[in-house]
């Protein structure tokens, strides 16, 4: 057995060497070695398998969850985009669809004791809880000879894979299928905040496809902007239309020519003619930034306000410096669109009678027949008696039609040059034509003018034997604000014909280079037949539940719509990208307000 005196070898108090305090301090002061993990953290957490890890053809049956580490929990938000790499270099691109705290250890914290204890503490101990993120797989990213590509999610990530926030512009754009080039709408956002990357500029621009590589430009597959009062829909519409009017934007016609589009915008609030003028509040630094990002800005010089002449109404404004040109609707336009003079809910029998009466009138008076002459024609008692006795039009039907066609004396054949004689100025490649109706106090007159002029454009676009080659041979963007007032579902015979016309226009738009650009605060009132043809839906703040349901956006984005601030929007364009949230520019690119 060892002698007790040997204890001094280990610094005891027995015999042997007598250590001083300095010697003992030196012995205790051993060298400390700084250690670092073999691999530094480069993510927000890891793929977890405790509750399953599954990729399925049915998205609802997929289960992918990530454990979020303590230091990252406060910055994680629903909607953020994440990346989970596969061992072979491919990457799973996904979105946070849900967040959940779960207990780390088995305990019952729904008790008085736990509650009182928690209320006395300044914070919680994150180590006591697991923080899990539900991930929605969006695509698999992979490298190819043509650069980064995406495909459907067809493989499951490995357990414990590090998940990191997507911060590369190319990865995010590829993952969401956002085109590199096209018509600028805004910047990608999540929860009302712009997505930031490590690139310059740090924001991600959202654009609509505007070439023929993957089909027709989306402008000819129609756009709807829906938003409530004060949501910024006119501001947004102006900024988008300004991009369509860029000098370098052209579209290929069937004869091989590349032509800049003509924009015709109906304007119920006298706001769009302001696009002629610059926005004086747009400072030089902001303008340079827009130029670097390829965003067209500044007033559009080729802007003309075509003002409808209606009775004694006068259009007097100092809100813009655009040229003003008066026009009237000639009654001859009713020959091809008899519903323009129907004026109310005619049934099919009455509508057929109206067509017969108009055919007879124009046979007798020629194409130059006026509305006043038509009223005199309808006042002839001999005509009423003749048609009744022949069985062609019953006298009660005649009387019903006669009542409906009254009241258009301030609309047709006014003291101005007919629109049909001004087509070359009305439709100009690269030009913006605004048709203001704010000065017209009669709703019936407004509806007649908007539908008459828009039908003229549609008829000529769809015709195989057009009367006006300028319309047929020019790409046209037809903008209609408060579209719900003109393209609403109704049971009357004339309403069905109006909707039928615009449905045909929408169906053939890509072929004829005609794009509908509809703006409304009541999307639920737009006829379903027209709505189904719209490819791109831009949704700003809407408070009405029926309106939100009608725009048919994914439920995860639908729930955000009532809470969006001015300028925030959801874009649902299936042929362009995944459904996303974006933020429009804070500045109007032209004069506004």
What this model shows, in words?
The protein has 593 residues and is α/β, with parallel strands linked by helices. The protein is built from 16 helices and 22 strands. The strands form 3 sheets. Strands 8, 9, 10, 11, 14, 15, 16, 17, 18, 19, 20, 21 and 22 form a 13-stranded mixed β-sheet that branches. A hairpin with a 7-residue loop joins strand 21 and strand 22 (580-583). Helix 6 (348-365) packs across helix 7 (371-378), helix 6 crosses helix 9 (395-404) and helix 11 packs across helix 13. The longest helix is centred in the C-terminal third of the chain and has 20 residues, at 443-462. It is elongated and about 95 Å long. Residues 1-18 and 24-40 have low confidence and may be disordered.
Report the total helices.
16
Number of beta strands: 22
Q: Can you tell me the overall shape?
A: elongated
Termini separation (Å)?
A: 101 Å
Oligomer: single chain
Q: Beta-strand level of the residues, as a percent range?
A: 15-25%
Helix content: 25-40%
Structural class computed from helices and strand pairing = alpha/beta
Mean pLDDT: 90
Low-confidence stretches: 1-18, 24-40
Main sheet summary: 13 strands, mixed
